[in-house]
Amino acid sequence: MIHTSDSEIVSLLLDHCSDVIDINFQGDQGRTAVHWAVGDPGSLRLLIGRCRPDLDLVDTNGASALLLAIAHGQAESALQLIDAGCDFRLVSDFYLKRF
Fold first, then answer.
1. What whole-number distance in Å separates Cα of residue 26 and Cα of residue 34?
2. Sign of CA dihedral 88, 91, 94, 96
3. What pTM was computed for the model?
4. Burial class (CB in 10 A: 0-12, 13-18, 19+), 77
5. Percent helix, percent strand, percent coil in the chain, to nearest 5
6. Higher pLDDT, 8 or 59
């Protein structure tokens, strides 16, 4: 698995490898490409627009991509995820289970 926050590399991969990329693949931490892309709104925009990923998958800690965006102060990414239709309830469910 390649981890990058560079939207040009993401675009190149999608242009040339989209037929072999499993956009919803969950690595050893249970995170998908969307989880990793919340730090770079350009990459996230590409993934959402071109791949139609499952935005509601959670990692091994129970964190959705939206939760990570909020927790790390990535407002633009959080708005993109909400606009794309992710389930905001996953964020509240995460916190309700913890406290």
1. 10
2. negative
3. 0.82
4. buried
5. 55, 0, 45
6. 59
d(CA 89, CA 1): 29
Number of residues written out for the chain: 99
Cα-Cα end-to-end distance for the chain: 33
- Which residues is 64 bridged to in the sheet? 58
φ, ψ dihedrals at 61, nearest 5°:
-90, 0
Predicted confidence at residue 76, as pLDDT, reads 97
* Structure-token pair, residue 16: 């040339």
The CB density around residue 25, as the number of other CB atoms within 10 Å, is: 12
